[in-house]
Amino acid sequence: MVARRTLVSASILDADLADLARDSRRALRAGSDRLHLDVMDGHFVPNITFGPTVIKRLRRVGKQPFDAHLMISEPGRYMDQFIDAGCDSITFHVEVDEPIEPTLRKIRKAGRQAGLAVKPATPLSALEPYRELIDIVMVMTVEPGFGGQSFMTDAAGKILPAHDLFRGRAPELPGGQVHVDGGVNRKSAELCGAFAAEVLVVGSTLWKKDVDIAREIRLIKALADEGYENRAGMGKVAIPHDQWVTFATLPGPVGKRLLDSMEAAGIPVIGLRAARVPGSGSRRGYELLIPASCETSAIERFGRAREQALAEVRREPSVDPRAGRGGPA
Fold first, then answer.
1. R_g (Cα) of the chain, nearest Å
2. Are both 19 and 38 inside the same structural domain?
3. Fewest CB atoms within 10 Å of the CB: 57, 115, 180, 294?
4. Containing structural domain, residue 274
5. H or E element: which one contains 49?
6. Helix axes 213-230, 186-194, angle to 10 degrees
7. What's the CA gap between 38 and 36, in Å, rounded?
8. Considering 237, 270, 303, which residue would you say is the last residue of a domain?
9. What is the pLDDT of residues 105-161, one digit of tens each?
């Protein structure tokens, strides 16, 4: 079984801005390890969201950490307000046009974690002067400013080397974390895990209509952890991260029972409606799909349960609708 490693920070950028408290609670109760708060000023990025007053009022929704991501031109000017708002970590952009070191020192003096974010085109070398002052490196895998953008695989190449910024620091400094922000979903989670990202910022995919937020968070964590376990060499995944395979095709109740058991054990699984279940007459059911990267561990843990479920199906009499209602096949 893959040990739990990856954390999810739920971004509320695409949540219902008219009821952020409700959606923040939903994300935390669904298993998000923290909240990601995107602050935009309309200058550093061409969008405007909310500020420290809103964050301070949201602080009552839970005890999980609040990660503030400041996409603003003058973070130093407003830092006291964000500290007072109750942010546990505060990350701003290395690309700002003002002195960076005093702001990092202020965050750390207040007992909060200090972070620097890098846009996709910004090299990690821009962070070198501040390696002794940061607790977080945030690798942006989209251009900052808007939610719902597609994951930039080229930018993700900075995730693994970002860890080098925390190596060789003074021994009294705590270990740092690499966060990934932008386009993180099921498709990109395994690659992020393979590159050893500790915190994944997950936003728009959680707030789509009819999405089960708790299930989505479980799947993303599991995929990222699988990617971390299966990486080969320099952060490459051993199996393509978007390859899914069929684990079993079973009638409704039997398939749902196995799906629930696998999900509860942390194995990412998707149940698709199958047109016909082999060996069960005309009955419909579930085709259970799992990532190819975790097929071996799934067979080790649930191979016997799968065989028992298939045997149960074979023992049940199949029904042929041409034989009349309830008649034998």
1. 23
2. yes
3. 57
4. 244-315
5. none
6. 30
7. 6
8. 237
9. 999 999 999 999 999 999 999 999 999 999 999 999 999 987 778 899 999 999 999
- In a domain, residue 251? The reply is yes
- The DSSP code for 275 is S
The 10 Å Cβ neighbour count of residue 72 is: 21
Instruction: Record the pTM.
Output: 0.71
- Scan for tokens 């202020």, then name that residue: 106
pLDDT in tens, 80-114: 999 999 999 999 999 999 999 999 999 999 999 99
Q: For residue 180, what are its two tokens?
A: 């990934």
Out of 237, 271, 294, pick the residue that ends a domain: 237
Among candidates 294, 192, 44, 194, which has minimal Cα distance to 202?
192
Q: What is the CATH number of the domain that holds 67?
A: 3.20.20.70
d(CA 248, CA 313): 12
Active site residues: 38, 181
Residue 138 covered by a domain:
yes
Q: What count of residues does the chain have?
A: 329
Determine phi and psi for 184, rounding to 5 degrees: -80, 125
Are 152 and 266 found together in one domain? no
The CA distance from 103 to 4, in Å, is: 33
